[in-house]
Each structure stands twice: as C-alpha cells, then as structure tokens.
C-alpha cells in the first residue's frame, strides 16, 4: 500500500501527466452533464414514468449502455458516440476491402487525415439517419411525454438537429481527449457511459439481497466471482503468442545493426469486442419480424439472455464473427512483406509465401480458443443470473460488451500512465515495474 501511495504521488508530481488527467476528467464531466439534458419538447417527468413501465433488450439496450442511459432519458446525447463508431467500423472495413482506401492508408500522416475527415462526414450521415429513426421511436414508445405544443414537423426538425449536433460534440470531446488527454477518447467516453450505470445496478442488487436473510453472503460471493471474471478477462485481452524473429546483421560505417533475436506478438483475441457487438445486432434482427403469439415467443427467445437457445446461437455467431473479423483486419501477407523489407525472418521458415502461410496457420490455431473464450464471456451474464438469481441490471456487468470494454480501456489507460512514469525513471504501477502488454523495444513493431 505504501508503494502504491508513492506511485500516486509520482503521478501527481509530473506536471504533464497531471494536466492530461485533469483535462480528461473535465471533458468526461462535460459529457456526463450533457447526458442528463433532455431534448426540447420532451417532458422529463412523464418520460421517467413511462420508462419505468418499459423494458429494452437487444440492440436498443446496447445503444443505451454505450450512451450511459442517455438513450432512455431522451437526452441531447441520446445517440452518444455510436454513429461515430459505426462510421469508423465502415471505414476500417473499407481500408481492408477497397484498394483506394488501402492506398490512402499507406500515405502516412496525410492519408490518416483524409481517412479521419471521411469518417467525420460519414458520421454526420449516419447520425441524421439514426436521428430520424430515434424520433419515430420516441413517437411510438414515449408519445405522451412529448409536449403537445410542439408540432410534428417542428419536433422532428429540432430533434434531428440537436441529436446530430450532440453526437458531433461528443465526437469532438473524444478526439480532444485522445489528442490532449489520457487514453483513447472514444473508448473512455463509452466506458464512462457504462460505469455510470454501475452504482445504480450495485445498489439494486444490494437492496435485493438485503431483503432476505442470508443473501448478504451470496452478495459477497458475487463480488468475489466478479473479481475473478475480471482477472480472466485481463488474461484474454493481453494473451499473445510470441513468434521468434531474427534480423540479419547489417554494418553501416563502423556500426552494426540487427542480429538481435526479437519476437512477433500475435494476439489471441485480435477481434476485440467487435464479434460480441455484431452478434447482439444479428440476434436482434429476428425480433423485428416476429408477429403473433408464436412470434412473440420467438422474439423473447432471441432477447432473453438466460435462454439456452439464445446462449447456443449467440456462441456460434460470436465464434463465426471472430474468425471473420480477424481475417478482415489481420493480413499475414503484409506482416511477411514487412519482415522481408526489414531483413527479418522466422527461424526455420523461408521468407515470402512460406512465412505468410506459417503466420496464418498460427493465427488460425490461436483464434479458435480466443473465440471460444470470447463467446463464454458473452454468455456469462445469463449464466451468472441463472446461477445466483441476481438482478438483470447487475448481471450485465459480469460479462459481454460492458466487461470487455471496461477492462480493455482501463488496461490501455494504465499502460499509458506507466509509460509516462517509466520515461521519467519512476517505478511502474505494478510490483514488477511493468504492465504486461505494454510495447517495449523487444517487440517487433508491425
């Protein structure tokens, strides 16, 4: 504990790091404040009464999670950062599939600026479309909460404009945090939105357990299980397969370069959280076409995360999307070419196509256990709810998108803080002085 307190003092003593932390906290506070400002023409009291009698599942609940509850509150930040994420995913896929985008990506800083600008334009289009859909959603589910004095056309126009401006402002906050703050701004905004729901879910679960004698012990066990799940999630996010790489010796003047034995880190979970997001979106589609009594039963099967059929289908979809997304974002041919250009080679493997095949085969072998673990984390909320009988709101933090995003963002932020400390010859945040997974000089930069 004494060493931890000293580390915090070291962090606060670095002026640059202290400024970044304060700047990040300030912008996050602005975002959370805006998430509680209701749209013009909406009666917040009537909306709150309606929301208590309604429940959401599927993609709508996912959007509300990412928006920190602003979606249900009809806030000016109701769409949150989701349109920007959608545009970023689209552009990322285009850089893999379209040669023009690939060429743009290889242009360096100028190409990156073009891609970022294109992403912003696409964000505006996506936001406008989602804003119109959100207006229709408000009319269908929260019609009584709309102030009668607002005309239909006027309410639609003002809501679309405010929502678009709100999303662009949140996007700007994320970019400013990335440039001048600490960590990735977009990821931090999503994480703060998720964490904003944790205190209420924690209080509901504690109140639920306090009503019955002996359930406090179960609540303590739940907290212990939650800590263990977080540790397992950290292992999944940071797990890598180290492929040895040698570099040929080069003599330039009187100096010798290369000849060192390094490694190529291949992540077990290269796809990150994207397969879970895609799977939740796919399983939401059948609920749009379910009609009648039988259709309603089918719809509940695809939205009830405690259903056995839901878990089975969800796991298969997550595993399939993990392989698909990894194939899209991971290019063994490009890595092989980069190694060849830098006079690097894998011991016992010929350069060129054999190296490409070797790296591809390793990725195929390590992706399967990573996909299975990812699917298991995805269905954990349902399993935990069935096992302990806890509230649904609290069970959502035991796995799925929420847990992966929170753990991933916290690790990334801690790695950046530790890098700042190590640059100034301070001890790191961990006992060993280094968080596993931080980029070091011994890792090949691809």
From TrEMBL:
It comes from the Bacteria. Pfam families: SecY. Its main location: membrane. It is a multi-pass membrane protein. InterPro entries: SecY, SecY/SEC61-alpha, SecY_CS, SecY_dom_sf. It is found in: Cell membrane; Membrane. Keywords: Cell membrane, Membrane, Protein transport, Translocation, Transmembrane, Transmembrane helix, Transport. The keyword Transmembrane applies. The chain crosses the membrane at residues 21-42, 76-98, 118-137, 149-173, 185-204, 216-237, 271-289, 309-330, 366-388, 394-414. Component of the Sec protein translocase complex. Heterotrimer consisting of SecY, SecE and SecG subunits. The heterotrimers can form oligomers, although 1 heterotrimer is thought to be able to translocate proteins. Interacts with the ribosome. Interacts with SecDF, and other proteins may be involved. Interacts with SecA. Belongs to the SecY/SEC61-alpha family. NCBIfam families: 3a0501s007 (TIGR00967). The central subunit of the protein translocation channel SecYEG. Consists of two halves formed by TMs 1-5 and 6-10. These two domains form a lateral gate at the front which open onto the bilayer between TMs 2 and 7, and are clamped together by SecE at the back. The channel is closed by both a pore ring composed of hydrophobic SecY resides and a short helix (helix 2A) on the extracellular side of the membrane which forms a plug. The plug probably moves laterally to allow the channel to open. The ring and the pore may move independently. This is Protein translocase subunit SecY. It comes from Niabella yanshanensis.
């Amino acid at each position: 504990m004494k060493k931890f307190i000293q580390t915090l003092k070291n962090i606060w003593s670095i002026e640059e790091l202290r400024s970044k932390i304060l700047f990040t906290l300030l912008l996050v506070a602005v975002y959370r404040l805006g998430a509680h400002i209701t749209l013009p023409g909406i009666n917040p009291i009537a909306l709150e009464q309606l929301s208590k009698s309604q429940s959401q599942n599927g993609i709508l609940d996912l959007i509300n999670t990412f928006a920190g509850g602003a979606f249900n509150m009809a806030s000016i930040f109701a769409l949150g950062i989701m349109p920007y994420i959608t545009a970023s995913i689209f552009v990322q896929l285009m850089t893999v599939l379209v040669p023009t985008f690939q060429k743009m990506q290889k242009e360096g800083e100028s190409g990156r600026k073009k891609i970022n600008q294109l992403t912003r334009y696409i964000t505006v289009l996506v936001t406008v479309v989602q804003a119109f859909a959100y207006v229709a959603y408000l009319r269908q589910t929260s019609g009584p909460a709309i102030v009668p004095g607002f005309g239909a056309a006027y309410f639609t126009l003002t809501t679309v404009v405010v929502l678009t401006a709100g999303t662009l402002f949140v996007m700007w906050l994320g970019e400013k945090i990335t440039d001048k703050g600490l960590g990735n701004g977009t990821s931090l905004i999503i994480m703060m939105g998720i964490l904003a729901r944790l205190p209420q879910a924690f209080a509901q679960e504690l109140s639920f357990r306090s009503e019955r004698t002996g359930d406090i012990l179960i609540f303590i066990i739940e907290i212990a299980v939650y800590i263990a799940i977080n540790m397992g999630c950290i292992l999944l996010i940071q797990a890598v397969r180290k492929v040895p790489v040698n570099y040929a010796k080069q003599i330039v003047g009187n100096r010798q370069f290369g000849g060192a034995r390094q490694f190529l880190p291949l992540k077990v979970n290269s796809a990150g959280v994207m397969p879970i997001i895609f799977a939740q979106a796919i399983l939401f589609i059948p609920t749009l076409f379910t009609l009648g009594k039988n259709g309603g039963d089918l719809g509940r099967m695809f939205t009830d995360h405690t259903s056995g059929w839901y878990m089975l289908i969800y796991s298969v979809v997550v595993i399939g999307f993990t392989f698909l997304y990894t194939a899209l974002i991971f290019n063994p041919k490009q890595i092989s070419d980069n190694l060849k250009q830098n006079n690097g080679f894998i011991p016992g493997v010929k350069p060129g196509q054999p190296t490409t095949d070797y790296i591809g085969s390793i990725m195929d072998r390590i992706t399967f256990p990573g996909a299975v673990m990812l699917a298991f984390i995805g269905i954990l909320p349902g399993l935990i709810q069935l096992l302990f009988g806890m509230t649904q709101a609290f069970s959502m933090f035991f796995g799925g998108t929420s847990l992966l995003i929170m753990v991933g963002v916290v690790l990334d932020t801690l790695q950046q803080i530790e890098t700042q400390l190590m640059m100034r010859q301070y001890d790191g945040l961990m006992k060993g002085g280094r968080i596993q997974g931080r980029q070091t000089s011994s890792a090949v930069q691809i």
